[in-house]
Amino acid sequence: MMEDIRDPDAFRRHVLGTSGPVVVLFSATWCPFCRRFTPEFAKLSQELRIRTATVHLDDYENPLWEDYAVDVVPTIALFRGGELVDRQDGVLGYGLDRRAVRDFVGRVSPLLA
C-alpha cells in the first residue's frame, strides 16, 4: 500500500503514528529525478509488498525538509515505530536508481517483517 503524503500532519499520522515499518520516498514535483524515479519506486514497492509512502516536499517551508535533514530529493528512508532507522540519499544531479533502492531494501530487509 502506498500513501501519498503532502503535509506534516499526514506524515505524523501515516508514518510516525504507525508501529510497523514504512519505507518513505521524500520527493518533489519540481525535481526531474523524482519524476523519473517515483514510478519505479511504486513498481518496486508493489513487487516487494512493503508499506510505502511518498512524501511531497514541494514547499521549502515544509518543516520535514529540516526535521529529517533532506538535502537531496529523491531520498528514501525506513521508519519503524515512528523512528527513522535508515536512509539512502539521492545523488545531487542524478537522483536514485533501481539498484540503489534494491541495495537499500536488502540492507533493511530484516527490519521490514
Question: Could you provide a short overview of the structure?
Answer:
The protein is built from 4 helices and 5 strands, in the order E-H-E-H-E-H-E-E-H. It has 113 residues and is of the alpha/beta class.
Query: Into how many domains do the coordinates divide?
Result: 1
What is the C-level CATH assignment? Alpha Beta
Q: Could you give the count of β-strands?
A: 5
Helix and strand element order = EHEHEHEEH
Strand count, sense and barrel status of the largest sheet are: 5 strands, mixed
CATH architecture: 3-Layer(aba) Sandwich
| Coarse structural class | alpha/beta
Mean pLDDT: 89
- Looking at the structure, the CATH topology is Glutaredoxin
Strand content: 25-35%
Report the end-to-end length measured between terminal Cα atoms.
15 Å
Overall shape: it is globular
For the largest sheet, list the strands in their spatial order. Answer: 1-3-2-4-5
Radius of gyration, in Å, reads: 13 Å
Low-confidence stretches: none
